[in-house]
Amino acid sequence: MEDRSAKYRAFYAQLICAAAKAADPRLEQAFRTVRREPFVGPGPWSISFGGHPYVVTPDDDPAFIYQNMLLALDSARGLNIGMPGAHAFWLSGCAVKEGETVIQIGAGSGYYTAILAHLVGPGGRVHAYEIDERLAGLARDNLKDIAHVDVRGRSGIAADLPAADVIYVCAGAAQPAAAWLDALRPGGRLVFPLAPEGMLGGMLMITRPDEGAIWPAKFLSRAQFIGCAGLQDAEAGRRLGEAFAKGWEGVQSLRREGAPDETCWFAGEGWWLSTAPAPVPTEPVRPHADVTLT
Fold it and tell me: Is the dihedral of CA 117, 119, 124, 129 positive or negative?
């Protein structure tokens, strides 16, 4: 069975990374290397292609789990391992480097945590946060052999987050948590779904500059996730829906001060997104801030 799993995994990695136009061969190698079986549990499995009812596989043939689809962790609650093609695209966009420190918010059973661990290598670090006690236990068990990963069974929006080069969020929010922005090192990238629970929003990437309150930002794609506890706001969700309906591709910066002007795409409390670009840095960009454009 392992030989079959390796064959499926190799094709799956090549297919999803080709679709994501991933330029970094390490990303395909990560998807090729990390086995999905430990993270999905014993089959048969419930799968979905997003927005459609779950379909139960006829048996536990691993061929069923090496496809670009949602895999249910808890079908009653709509908790899934997200679509690998989408994650390959987002991970390509934020360009995780070897040796970097990554915070993951919403680790689930740990599959994408393992992918991140492969990308940063043993010289890096992954701090994974999972508020669901059962899932945190599964992730901790699944990742116990990876020394440079730690799983924290609590919320990932508290103010005591470690400093990070990348913060990768797998739960929808009506706003970026202040703790995420504060934890980023200069050149660090925050990638999170600006998408309150139940709403199709967008995966936003924000890069921290060396200084200043205007940060480069852009949407990588549309996105929808289960909601991040503590970052839900019905009124903000309504206004975000209106903003996305008018287009989203023009967003170029996050502003943390100043009154919103005519370039404002959406304004939150103490922050707003603008269609105007952030200032171009006068100093050379640090190597860990290089971002693969999609």
Answer: negative
